[in-house]
């Protein structure tokens, strides 16, 4: 049931958005970020169960946001004294991470529209680089310039 909720979040993941997660396993917490939460939780569960023979417990998943990597780094820094060397795992309780989430210490931004507009503003320059005909072909071919091959390259 919880995995299905995570799968639904993944379906709604936008082009620039991701989530921060905390996975409880044994006495440890793994903190990470991803744009594909369902796949990531399944992979982590398989790895932990396979290598440590421990089943995962509760999973804390943030809302979708564009600064998910920054929030992951913030959490890693916040709990750095409890970090298990060479891992993304910490000797903390899930409640510790939940406190950071609920006390508004994380800033969940949605700048996806800004990113789209930044990319769209580059189109005239792309047209100058490739010539007007190529730019028109890209628009015609894709019906949305944000999904042009140039767009992927510029990211």
Q: Summarize this, please?
A:
It contains eight helices and four strands.
SSE blueprint:
Elements: H1 2-12, E1 19-25, E2 28-34, H2 37-52, E3 56-61, H3 68-78, E4 89-90, H4 94-102, H5 112-121, H6 123-130, H7 132-142, H8 149-154
Antiparallel strand pairs: 1-2, 1-3, 2-4
> What is the average of the pLDDT values?
75
Q: Low-confidence parts, pLDDT < 50 over ≥5 residues?
A: 125-135, 137-155
Task: Report the sheet with the most strands, covering strand number, pairing sense and barrel closure.
Answer: 4 strands, antiparallel
CA(first)-CA(last) distance: 35 Å
If strands are numbered along the chain, what order do they take across the biggest sheet? Answer: 3-1-2-4
Helix content: 40-55%
Total helix count?
Answer: 8
Q: Tell how many strands the DSSP assignment holds.
A: 4
Output the structural class: alpha+beta
- Percent strand: 5-15%
How large, in whole angstroms, is the Cα Rg?
20 Å
